[in-house]
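> run fold alanine transaminase
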Amino acid sequence: MSRMLIKPAAATVSAALQQHQRQQQQYVIRRWKSFLHNNSNNANRRAAKSTATATVTAAATSQRHGTSGDFIQPLDVRRSFSTSHKMPSSSKALTLDNINPNFIAMEYAVRGPLVIRAGEIEKELEKGVKKPFDQVIRANIGDCHAMGQQPLTFLRQLLALTFETRLLDSPDYPEDVKKRACAILNGCQGQSVGSYTDSAGLEVVRRQVAQYIEKRDGGIASNWQDIYLTGGASPGIKSILSMINAEVGCKAPGVMVPIPQYPLYSATISEYGMTKVDYYLEEETGWSLDRKELQRSYDEAKKVCNPRALVVINPGNPTGQVLTRENIEEIIKFAHDNKVLVLADEVYQDNVYDKNSKFWSFKKVAYEMGDPYRNLEMVSFLSTSKGYLGECGIRGGYMEVLNLDPKVKAMLTKSITAALCSTTAGQVAVSALVNPPQPGEPSYDLYKKERDGILAALKERAELVHKALNSFEGYKVNPVQGAMYVFPQIEIPPKAIEAAKAKGMAPDVFYAFELLETSGICIVPGSGFGQKPGTWHFRSTILPQTDKLKLMMEKFRVFHAEFMKKYK
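> ok
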């Protein structure tokens, strides 16, 4: 949180909270300065030792991290982080001392130090450095295709035909795919996906999205002019947070986020100098959400900021829960009563595995609740990166903006024009998501087989991971009802906590680094998502293909047994 956004009138309230947030920002800034400083020193040392053997070179490369018996936090937290720490003098115009401090305070745990170390280990393995494993299993991020998922034929054919129009004459492509490709091309300037589109996206695709939403929600109307096509869900989320980033009554804007949360939100809130307002999900009841907890969080935050938006992730990331309709109704009532904008992150809506769970869109529930709730200001998000497509790199998504003041919506549209438009590849992928083959069309049978196979495999892996981890000593694991992740609570022995403290690490970070160095499995510590004080978790994806996932669970079992034996 940037101090300049807090006026003196608010500074006298909840001083301890503000001081904690300032200290946290300053700590992160010092941590990254030290990380970059030591990277520079290590690079110089490696250059001086370029004639050393491969094994010695690899050890020098890993000096910050140590071996499996000497783990060092990649940000080198064993160094002193005094507030007087300064970077070496530099001839550069830009240094860490004179750039926007929010850039340094921002952290994105899913691609943090553990992932950096995992990449280094992969390079060490390529050079022949001996490890107790032969591969790194990246269970840290929801990247479906990187984990072996195959693309849907229909989507890739549609991309091929729209990007190489000469293929429209080929007999190798089904007629229904050609028809869809021609509809998209006819909506492009010059009939080419190489042209700019409207800033909100191709009208033909936006209309398809609106029809898809109407069908999903049982006929509730959707206006295509409320649809904005985005490069994945993230740019849409950031554009809304940027729009509400304004002081009201001399107080900084606050954004209510679930704890645990997806780090995109905490990172963006830090980047924009806003205030993150935590509300806790109830792990004991399957990561449900209690309205009393929402109100407690809101009322406490009102002392120092203006909570302006409420983020809800359903199905949950990292927690894998699916909210009940009753839970959603309570959230909608809270948002209405407290006049906050709802950000409904629904990118995993196709990923529901539990037979007793069902996805309900916030839009549908609010509409069916009647007035005044159907007029609630709300933005919902969907992405081609998740679900059964898993096309993370193509960057396709959309947001539906509901019930905003027309003048405010006009300002949102104006701001989006500065980015020109999202990629046409992403827009074609959105079209494939919302306008798939229908029964009786040539592509339907293969499409259905591939889609159903992907979802069935994810369901199998969700059950496999829950069963395996739930058998580990000191683990508490809620069933994976949806999404692509498991978020178990782990009981870390006091001896391990002391060992972590000695190395300047949080216990869950220490656990994750030992797991990586010992078994090659890369996970994300729960502290990167937020967790109740005194509890420790981690997030792992369920995306590795079933054979590799079984191998991963066995490696995990062996590691955890040895870890408990060592530190109990």
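Residues 155-435 form a domain with the Aspartate Aminotransferase; domain 2 fold (CATH 3.40.640.10).
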